[in-house]
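User: Structure with pyridoxal-5'-phosphate, tokens only please.
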Amino acid sequence: MTFEEARAQFPMLERYAYLNAGTNGPLARATGEAVIEQTRRDLEHGRSGMAWFERVLELREAARLGLAAVLDADPLHVALTDSTSRGCSIVLSGLGLGAADEVIITDQEHFGLTAPVHAAGVRVVVTEADEDAIVAAVTPRTRLIATSHVLWTTGRRLDLRRVREDSGIPVLVDGAQSAGAIRVAAGEFDFYTVSAQKWLCGPEPTGALFVRDPEQLRVTAPGYLAQTSYEPTGAFAPKEGAARFDSGWLATPMLLGLQAALATHPEWRYERAAEQAARCRELLGAHVDVVTPAGHSTLVSFRPSGDPAELVAALDDAGVIVRELPGRNLVRASCGWWTSDEDLQRLAAGIAAAA
Ligand SMILES: Cc1ncc(COP(=O)(O)O)c(C=O)c1O
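Assistant:
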């Protein structure tokens, strides 16, 4: 597939320089049509009966397989979720931690991770977002390190393999800004949680959670599809592997849409996305203070000379979509494999005009 063919899958890219996959990726025509196709089937033929239920189960397994491929993981270790945040909650509640336990996070995490850590009732240790600082914060009471692979603020990528090795502590990775954007090997970690609506361009809400040792994590929010048998008391036999953590029913049209979305990504996606992020850094560097280090991720965050919200609004008026990072005086551009040179030039021209 050529770049032009691959990009042509996304109707909105004909109109906009869309640089916000860090929030939600662009939707491909095939993805939207798949959602509509399943909705139409359900409208015309209903949502019950053995054949329908078997189709739902097949779609779930296809989604698990597709997401496992993105994570370079065995599907047996992958749970279907609706979001990155859900994966964080499943892990934090399942570990059964208490007030005497410490969990290390960094000062650059998203609420989707910090909130489940806080809600677990543990002692939260906040460090600078730096590998050495994280490892230095470990004490005999540390039970978990919970941090992002790619920071949603600065776009910095953390070497979490090193953190895992040097600390010897289980790591929960927030992969919201990595899955689909950079190559991921979830098996290097204990838990890896991702969203599919961002860099994977899936419908929302969809996501996945990799669990290296499913038997060691408690099932704290069992859905009907988490079990193989149950008693009138509610006692149940969990499914084998990570499927026991599946976060309940996922909308069937979204499952078909996700399957279509996962098929839109060309083989060269990671290389091209990295190239476009590098080009973006270079172009913006002439106008603003770029804070994302070179070669880290597909996010390019920068400090504009004026008000970030005003700049985002002015760019929006010009059909260039980026986002502001509230409270940080930063604007963030997300560069995907679908990003064209023209998109980046439109962004740079908009910034120059605003200055
Ligand atoms: C680093 C990070 N973690 C978590 C989330 C939340 O993702 P979700 O809505 O899939 O829970 C985001 C969303 O932007 C994010 O950037």
